[in-house]
């Protein structure tokens, strides 16, 4: 200031503070773009990954620290265990297969062989275990696929394979009647096993017999090698019967396994029940509830009487040989050409044609060795005699009932004659 007046600044002069202000101004203009870029990057990171204070929730707020650490795609904690172990060989056909779940529940178990045949099984009520409802087949490879679910609904699965044992000793069941046959109302399903069975319940459970129309059917063991099935009363005419032998892999006795998996069926034809009155020496033939013929017969002589009881025709022969030596009569007779013979018992009881007795014998005298004889001629054939008529009118499975004979009732296992047991005895 000169004489109290301000001194004007010149273009070439400046103070230190002016210089500092100018310096800051230049620096600010030079760093502005970098600051903007850093801010944009920070905004981008915040938008993609969230800030340190937590992520926005559905309600616009922030998850707490615990929520922010949760892993949405965590693996299931359920553990599936299959016995036997994967790729096991020589596995037992019963008792070895089991599937379990730890830290979860089984939701699905599928077991099948190489042919795609499934093994039926059941998951326990608590979901902890699965077991088969049937035995396995021998010498067979199986695949297991099991799925379990943990408490969070996440699934865990296991796939394994194993092969069952190859049996060294086996058995089968030889059955009657034949597949596709039409038989009489008295025909049981009879199965004879090639080895004695010491595990009858297991073998019986492996066989199913069903009928259409449906009727209760039960099995009964005769000894340890024969199992018969029948309903309480004779089959109804027209019934369709199906038998399934699921014996493959069943241990019928220690170290002896079934090797048979087979189904067969048969049909019940018309109803025919014939009643022999040994005292009256007649046979009444009843077809579908109506008597169609009354035939004079000869039954067992006083020393060789005919069994009483219900008997089923099990075999038919147009001509056959009958030798007394084969049934305990020594050389009393040997007839090489007995016509129209139909077997009623394993021990040798037949209903058959008789050409060697006089025609007056039939209906008036009992002279046989225990069989039921009908008038016939030598050579058999369709000859019009009562014997030929009855032979042509009968089928395997028809019933012949003998009464009023001076003999005991035939044993139920002597032929296909289980009808001589009450239903209570049969099912016991």
TrEMBL record:
CDD domains: LDT_IgD_like_2, YkuD_like. Keywords: Acyltransferase, Cell membrane, Cell shape, Cell wall biogenesis/degradation, Lipoprotein, Membrane, Palmitate, Peptidoglycan synthesis, Signal, Transferase, Transmembrane, Transmembrane helix. Residues 1-28 are annotated as: Disordered. InterPro entries: Big_10, LD-transpeptidase, LD_TPept_cat_dom, Transpep_catalytic_dom. One of its GO terms (molecular function) is peptidoglycan L,D-transpeptidase activity. Pathway: Glycan biosynthesis; Cell wall biogenesis; peptidoglycan biosynthesis. The chain crosses the membrane at residues 30-52. The active site is at 352 (proton donor/acceptor), 371 (nucleophile). One of its GO terms (cellular component) is extracellular region. It holds the Pfam family YkuD. GO terms for biological process: cell wall organization; peptidoglycan-protein cross-linking; regulation of cell shape. PROSITE patterns: LD_TPASE. This is L,D-TPase catalytic domain-containing protein. It comes from Streptomyces paludis.
């Amino acid at each position: 200031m000169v004489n109290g007046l301000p001194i004007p600044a010149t273009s070439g002069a400046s103070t230190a503070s002016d210089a500092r202000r100018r310096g800051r101004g230049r620096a600010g203009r030079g760093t502005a773009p970098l600051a903007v870029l850093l801010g944009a990057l920070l905004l981008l990171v915040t938008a993609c990954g969230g800030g340190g204070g937590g992520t926005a929730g559905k309600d616009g707020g922030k998850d707490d620290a615990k929520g922010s650490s949760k892993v949405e795609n965590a693996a299931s904690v359920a553990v599936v265990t299959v016995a036997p172990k994967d790729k096991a060989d020589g596995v037992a056909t019963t008792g070895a297969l089991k599937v379990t779940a730890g830290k979860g529940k089984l939701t699905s178990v599928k077991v099948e062989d190489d042919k795609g045949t499934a093994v039926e099984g059941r998951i326990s009520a608590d979901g902890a275990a699965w077991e088969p409802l049937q035995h396995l087949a021998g010498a067979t490879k199986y695949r297991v696929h099991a799925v379990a679910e943990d408490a969070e609904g996440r699934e865990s699965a296991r796939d394994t394979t194993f092969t069952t044992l190859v049996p060294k000793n086996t058995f089968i069941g030889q059955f009657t009647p034949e597949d596709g046959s039409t038989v009489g109302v008295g025909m049981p399903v009879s199965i004879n096993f090639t080895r004695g069975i010491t595990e009858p319940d297991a073998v019986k459970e492996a066989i199913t017999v069903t009928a259409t129309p449906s009727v209760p059917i039960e099995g009964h063991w005769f000894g340890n090698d024969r199992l018969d099935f029948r309903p309480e009363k004779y089959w109804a005419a027209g019934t369709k019967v199906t038998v399934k032998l699921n014996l493959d892999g069943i241990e019928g006795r220690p170290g002896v396994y079934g090797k048979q998996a087979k189904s067969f069926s048969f049909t019940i034809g018309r109803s025919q029940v014939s009643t022999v009155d040994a005292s009256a020496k007649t046979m009444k033939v009843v077809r579908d509830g109506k008597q169609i013929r009354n035939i004079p017969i000869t039954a067992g002589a006083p020393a060789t009487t005919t069994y009483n009881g219900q008997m089923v025709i099990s075999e038919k022969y147009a001509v056959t040989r009958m030798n007394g030596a084969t049934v305990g009569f020594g050389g009393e007779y040997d007839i090489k050409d007995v016509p129209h013979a139909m077997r009623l018992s394993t021990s040798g009881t037949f209903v058959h044609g008789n050409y060697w007795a006089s025609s007056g014998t039939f209906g008036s005298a009992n002279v046989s060795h225990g069989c039921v004889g009908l008038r016939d001629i030598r050579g058999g054939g369709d000859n019009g005699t009562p014997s030929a008529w009855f032979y042509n009118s009968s089928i395997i499975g028809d019933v012949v009932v003998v009464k009023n004979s001076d003999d005991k009732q035939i044993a139920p296992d002597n032929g296909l004659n289980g009808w001589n047991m009450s239903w209570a005895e049969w099912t016991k």
